[in-house]
Each structure stands twice: as C-alpha cells, then as structure tokens.
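Protein modeling request. Please complete all fields; requests missing the sequence field cannot be processed.
Requester role: graduate student
Desired output: 3D structure, token encoding
Chains: 1
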Amino acid sequence: MAQTLEAIRIEKDSVAALEYEMAVLVRMLTATRPRNPQVSTMDRSAYLILHQLEEAGAPVALQDLASRLHADLSTVSRQVSAMEKKGLIQKYPDPEDSRVHRVAVTAHGGKQFGAMREARHATYSEILKDWPAPEREALATQLTRLNQAIRRYQSADRPAD
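Delivered output (161 residues):
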C-alpha cells in the first residue's frame, strides 16, 4: 500500500525531530554527571564494560566483550588496559587457550561499579522525578527498542566471520 504524501511528510518530520533530539540527548547525557564526586570519575566506557562483566557473572573473553559492546576489539583492548591499571578489572590468559584473554571484575571494580550505578540511578531518579511511573516505563521500553534497532543496524554493517 502506497504511503500518502502527508504520511511521508510526517515520517520525515518525526525522523528529523528525532535526529536532532538524539544529538541533544547525547550532548546532555555527556554533560550530566552524578553529584557524588567519589563516583563521577568513571567514564562511560568503563561503566559499560563493568556492566557487561557484572551481567555475565563470569570472566568474559576480550573478543566476546567487544562483540557485546558492538565495539572494535582494539578499542576495547585499550579501554580494558586502562581499567586494569586502575584496578577495576583483571585480564588473564584463558586456561584452555592461551591466545584468548579473559576479563573479570576485581573486588575494587565491583565496588566502584556499584557506587556508580547507584549514583546514576539517583541522578536519573532526580531528573525524572516529575514523570508519572507509566511514562518512565514507556520511555525505558522505547529506549530499549531503539537500542535494539541500533544494534541490528550495526550488525548488518559488520562483515560475516
């Protein structure tokens, strides 16, 4: 069924509005830090890596971590090295294949991640305090859906192994 010109115009306008609002959102999120100075030093990449490792519940191969993050292996490797120097994670050879390196959260990293997660939760709770629960839930649902669509888009760009 062919779209009407009005439907196409509305779709283009909504995509244009979304494109701009996403750019503003990324900028605002980058500038928004938890007010707790003890946790505000953890950068976004460290937070996301620690989140993936905590979610996995077991050491993760560096290659798998890069895949989970939809990031280049060399980028993740560089970030992991910086985090290892800060004592947030530990990297070691896989006992079954010494060519593979696994990454695990240290006790210090787990504490820092927990503190950062709590600080971020408090920050977003404050930002969204005037939003009714159904609207917060709808936003979370739509952001999850958007992130899934972005992951599919990125996966389509990656060459097959």
